Amino acid sequence: MSSVKKFYLPLLIFFGVLFLYIHNLSRGTYGGDVGDLLSASLVMGVAHPPGYPLFTILGFLLSRINLVTPAFMVGLISAFSGALGVLIFYFTSLELTKSRVISLISSILLAFSYYFWLYSEVAEVFALNNFFVILLFYLALMYSLKKDIKYLFLTSFFTGLSMTNHQTIIFIFPSLLILSLPNLLRDLRNYKNIIYCILLGLLGFSPYLYVFYAAAHNPPINWDHVKDINSFLHLFLRQDYGTLSIGQVSPPTVSQRIASFKIYFFDILVQATIPAIIIIILGILYSIKRKLKYFLALFFAFILSGPVFIVYAGFPLFSSFNVGVYERFIIMSFVILLMFFPLGLLTLRDLFDKIFTKKELSILVIGIFIIIPFSLFRFNYPKTNLSNFTAGNDVAYDLLEPLPKNSVLILSGDTLLFNTWYVHYGLGYRKDVQVLNLSGLTGSSYFAKKLDNYLKSNPGQKESPDLVANVIMEIAKTNPVFSILNIEKTKGQKLVWVPYGLSSKLVLNGKIPQKQNYEKDAAVVWGSYKIPYKTTNDLVLGNLTASDIPLFYSNRLITTANFIVKNYNDKPLSFYYFKKSYEVDSANPAVSQVLGNYYIQQKECFIAEKYLKSSIGSFPYEPLSYFLLYYDYMDCFKSVSGAENVIKEYSNQFHTDFYSDIKKTFKQNNNG
Fold this sequence. Notes:
The N and C termini lie far apart (80 Å). The longest helix has 28 residues, at 70-97. Helix 4 packs parallel to helix 7 (126-146), helix 9 (173-180) runs antiparallel to helix 16 (292-313) and helix 30 runs antiparallel to helix 31 (605-618). By secondary structure, the protein is mainly α. It has helices at residues 8-24, 34-42, 53-63, 70-97, 100-112, 114-118, 126-146, 149-162, 173-180, 183-187, 191-205, 209-216, 229-236, 254-272, 274-290, 292-313, 320-328, 331-338, 341-355, 359-367, 371-384, 391-400, 414-426, 445-457, 467-476, 515-527, 538-541, 548-568, 571-584, 589-601, 605-618, 623-637, 640-654, 658-671, and strands at 408-411, 434-437, 481-483, 496-500, 503-507. It is 66% helix and 3% strand. It is built from 34 helices and five strands. The chain has three domains: 7-384, no CATH class; 390-511, no CATH class; 588-672, Alpha Horseshoe (Serine Threonine Protein Phosphatase 5, Tetratricopeptide repeat). The protein has a five-stranded mixed sheet with strand order 2-1-3-5-4, with helices on both faces. It is globular and about 85 Å long.
C-alpha cells in the first residue's frame, strides 16, 4: 500500500467524526463552567482557577472569527480536540495491533461513547484534556517502540502544554515514565538532552504568561487578579478552592466515598456496554501476557485517574448538577480503559485465525463487532445533539431582561452566574446592569468602589459582620438591587426581599407591594420567560450539568408561592405557582413535598401518594418525604401495611430509628 493510501481511512474517520461533532455543537452556553470559559475568552480575561490559559487563548482567537455564534466558535476547540483524539487513538491502536479493521472499530467506539462525545460538543476544557491524554500516551508508546529521541522531545513539549489546560493530566505522568523506560535512562545520560527536555517543557508551559498580560488590563473576568508570583501561584494551585480539593464543598464522608466508588464502576459498565467490557478484559489479559509494560502504564493511569481520584474526591452526588460535575471527571479514566479494547479484539482475531483456515474470515468476524460503536451512536446521538439547546442562554436573558434600568444583579452558582456573564459581557446584553458575583464581591471594581466610599463615611464599620449588607443597602439608595439569594444582616434592620421572577428585589422601606400589584407584576414577568420544562428536555437536561436550569426556575416559583402565602394568604394563587413549579421540574423534591402535604390535608390520598413517591424517587435522601408518605398511609389511606413499608424503606435508606427521627423532625418544625 502506498504511503498516501494508508491515510485514506484515518482521514475519513477524522473528518467524519469532526463533521458529526460540529453538527451537534452547542450554539450557546451550556452549564457549569462553560459560561466562565466563554466569557474569559471573549473579553480576553482570566478564567477561574487554575486559569486555563491555553483554552482561553484559543477561544479568544476563534471568537474573533465572526461566524455562527461566539459560543459555537469557541466550542470548535472541543470539536476539533475530540476528532483529533479519535484520530490519534486510531494510530495508537494501529501501532499495537497492525490491523486497520481493529483500529477503525476501536476509534469509533471512543468517538461515540457518551461522555467523550458530549464534552466534544460544548466549550469546556475536557475534550482538549482527552486529546492530550491520548496524544501523550501515543508519543510515549512510540518512544518506547521506536527508540527515537524525537518522541521524547515531543512528549516533553506536550507535557508542559497539557499542564496549561487541565491539571488532572498529572495522573498519567507516572505511566509516561513507565512506558519511556529504559530508553529514558539511556538518552538522559547526555546532559544536553536533559536541557532540551526542560526547555521544551517550559516552552509548552509558556501560555501561562498570558494570565499576567490579561490581568494587567483588568478585564471584567479576572480571577485572582494575577500581578506577581504569589498571586500566580494562588491561581495555578487553585487556592480559592483548596489546592487538593475538587471545589468549595464540605469534606466527603466515608459513605459518600463508598457511594462514589460504586456509582463510578456502574457508570463505566453502562457507558462502555457489557460486550465492550468483556473485550477490554481480554485486552488486559493479553497485555499482561505479551505487553507487560503497556499494561502497567495503563493500569496505573486508570487507577489514579479513576478509582483513586473518585474515592478521594467523594463527589456529593445528591443532585443532578453534582452528578453532572462528577461525569466530567470520569472521562479520562474511561479513555484510558478503552486503550485495552484494541488488544482485546486482537486476542479474538488470533483465536479466530486458529479456527478459520482463511484469515479473511477472521477479519470478517471481527468486523461484526462494529455493531458495538454503532449501537452507541444510535443511543447517544439524541443525548449529545446540542445544536438546538437554548436554555443556557435563555436563563441569562430571563434574569437580565425584566430588570429596571441601571440595576444591580447579585448572582451565585456556576451556571447562573457564568451564563449571565457570557450573555452580559460576551454578547453585550444589558450593559446598563451591574452583574456581581456574591462569593467574590470584592473582586468587582464596581463593588470595591462602593465599598471604599462607604468606609470613608463609616470608618468604624470595617470589621462589621454586616459590612457587605450595609454596602448593598447603600447601593440600593440609588440603584435597584436584585439578588437570587436573600442577603441578610446579623443584627439591626432586617432586609426585605420581594420575589421578582428569577431574582428578588431589595425593598429599603420594608413595605411589600399591594397584592393586586404584585400579582399583576408576577404574571407579567413569569409570562415573559422561556421556561425550560424538564419533561420536554429529558434527553439534554436529564442528569447533566445543565439540569439545574429547570430546577432553578422551579425553585423560584416555589419562592413566589411561599411569598404569596406568607404575605397575602392567597392559597389558590400560591397553589397555582406550586403546580407550575412541579410542571417545570417534577423531579424537584421540594415542590413534591408541598403538593403531597396539601393533598393529604384535602384527603386526596392517591394524589398525595403520587407526589410523595415522586419526591422519594427523585431524591431518596430527604427524610421529610418519607414522613409525609407515612402520614398519608396512616391518616388518609388508613393502611397500616403501607405505613410499615414506608418505615422499612426509610430504615434501609438511613439506618436509623424511624419513630425517633419523625418525632424529632416535627418537634423542630413546631418549634420553628
